[in-house]
Write a structure and sequence with these properties.
single chain; mainly alpha; 3-stranded antiparallel sheet; 3-stranded mixed sheet; 14 helices
Length: 522
């Protein structure tokens, strides 16, 4: 009993020691496991940081590459633009070289002709010298006989004869010259007026004034909502397909189609008419109808060009020129329909060419094609006359026609008589009252420019542009400008207006100088 108690007392501390040892051992093991977890966590954080750093590095490299590509693209665009400018300058230089070579060729041809004429003259001079030698011998014999008969020397008789003939010749020559000059002036003016008046009287043409808007009439305002569509999708599809601004406002039973291109307005009008008639209005249907209408207009353009050529009796035109002629039907210049204007110029040139004995077919052809450059598909930075001449040359028109097309605004030198006729008939057609419409601002500016141009001369007190700018009346001070100076001033103002301003028809300059005597009865 006692022994068992002692043994139990001893075993109790040993148990406590074992428990404490196991506890310490667990703590140590837990400490080492926590340390390992911490190390793994640190390693994971480091790996994540490295991966993020790698991503940031890639982003920065991509941004640098994009910046480099953008800079390279901008540089290439700059180089392309510079190349375009250089190409344009090169084309201008080539054009000038072509003109110079043409002029040099013409000069060489004229030099050869002059050389031939000089050789012929030398031969004729030799013959004349021989005749003169024979005549001198005969004349000498006759003089000796006359001196013997008259008792006067040859020199004395010659002086008397010369004096008498000189006075008589002076009187008759002055009278004859004055008669010829007066008759020539009267005949030339009368003949020119007759040709122009007869030409104008034999041609009559109606004018269609084109606007930048077309009014499309509808039966009721309910159709406006269907044209607009849900959230405006139909009207946006129409505008995108036709390139025309469609204005739907409070105007009753009307929709306005606005665009500067009349071809687009016509396509939009016809397409809208077909959509409203059909009743099915949605984006897919709109695109289908617009494409169909566009093909229809292209066919009408070709048909119109063919019909115009047949009506005027012009044959053998290139198909592309026929298409461009038909395209003129939908173009306007200062409100004047371009096709009607070209038809009228063609008829005018043919009639005027017939009056002076030129080729009427070539003249009519040149008159029809003179404004073809205004409807060219490409639009380079060239005047329409030069562009039209290039088109005529490209499609194998004759040199006379090409030159008349290019010279009707004096961009190139006139080489045939048809060219000035086309220029005159173009002015006749455009300057007729009511043929063209002018913008009010440009019209007023032209009147002011004419008045200010004349006011700049010394002695001018007031200026008045009247008759729509076709006459300028200049009032000068009588003490500063004499009668002779007034005539000179009128001529100088006319020349300056002609050289510095652009205007239809002609401008009459009237200089008024008056002297007033004023007294008062008191």
């Amino acid at each position: 009993m006692i022994i068992s108690m002692i043994t139990g007392a001893i075993s109790l501390p040993m148990t406590m020691i074992l428990i404490l040892g196991s506890f310490v051992t667990g703590c140590v093991i837990a400490y080492f496991s926590w340390g390992k977890a911490l190390i793994k966590k640190n390693q994971r954080i480091i790996k994540e940081a490295e991966s993020e750093a790698e991503v940031i590095k890639r982003d920065k490299i991509l941004q640098a590459k994009e910046k480099f590509l953008q800079l390279r693209t901008d540089h290439e665009k700059y180089i392309i633009e510079k190349n375009k400018q250089l190409g344009f300058q090169e084309s201008k230089l080539k054009q000038k070289e072509t003109i110079l070579s043409q002029r040099m060729g013409e000069t060489e041809r004229k030099s050869r002709e002059l050389e031939v004429i000089r050789e012929n003259l030398n031969v004729q001079m030799d013959l004349v010298e021989k005749k003169n030698e024979e005549l001198k011998g005969q004349h000498k014999q006759q003089v000796e006989q006359l001196e013997t008969i008259s008792g006067l020397s040859a020199e004395e008789a010659k002086k008397q004869l010369i004096e008498s003939l000189k006075e008589e010749a002076k009187t008759e020559a002055m009278s004859y010259i004055n008669e010829i000059m007066d008759e020539a002036k009267m005949t030339a003016k009368k003949e020119a007026k007759r040709i122009v008046v007869n030409t104008i009287q034999r041609v009559a043409s109606e004018y269609t004034i084109e606007n930048s808007v077309t009014v499309f009439n509808i039966d009721s305002d309910e159709i406006k909502g269907r044209i607009i569509g849900r959230e405006g999708r139909n009207i946006r599809a129409l505008e995108a397909a036709t390139g025309v601004e469609i204005i739907v406002d409070d105007t009753p039973e009307a929709i306005i189609l606005s665009a500067f291109d009349p071809v687009r307005r016509e396509i939009a009008r016809l397409a809208l008419h077909q959509l409203v008639t059909d009743g099915r209005i949605h984006p897919a249907r709109i695109e289908e109808v617009v494409n169909k209408t566009q093909k229809q207009i292209e066919e009408e353009v070709v048909e119109s060009g063919k019909r115009t050529a047949i009506d005027l009796g012009i044959h053998g035109l290139h198909p592309e020129l026929i298409r461009l002629i038909g395209k003129m039907k939908y173009r306007s210049s200062y409100g004047q329909n371009l096709l009607q204007h070209s038809r009228e110029v063609a008829n005018l040139t043919a009639i005027m060419a017939a009056e002076i004995g030129l080729n009427t077919k070539l003249a009519k052809r040149a008159g029809l094609l003179h404004d073809i450059g205004k409807v060219a598909d490409e639009e380079p930075e060239l005047p329409h006359a030069i562009l039209g001449m290039k088109l005529a040359e490209r499609y194998k028109e004759k040199a006379e026609v090409s030159n008349a097309v290019g010279a009707h605004h004096d961009e190139v030198e006139m080489t045939t008589l048809i060219a000035p006729i086309v220029q005159v008939c173009d002015a006749i057609s455009g300057a007729r009252p009511g043929a063209r419409r002018e913008v009010v601002e440009s019209y007023i500016k032209r009147l002011k420019d004419i008045e200010e141009l004349a006011l700049a001369y010394p002695g001018v007190m007031k200026t008045y542009a009247i008759q729509a700018g076709r006459e300028l009346r200049v009032i000068v001070g009588s003490e500063k400008v004499s009668d002779e100076d007034a005539e000179k001033l009128s001529y100088e103002i006319a020349k300056k207006i002609q050289n510095e301003m652009t205007y239809p028809g002609q401008v009459k300059i009237t200089v008024i100088r008056e002297t007033r005597a004023i007294n008062y009865a008191k």
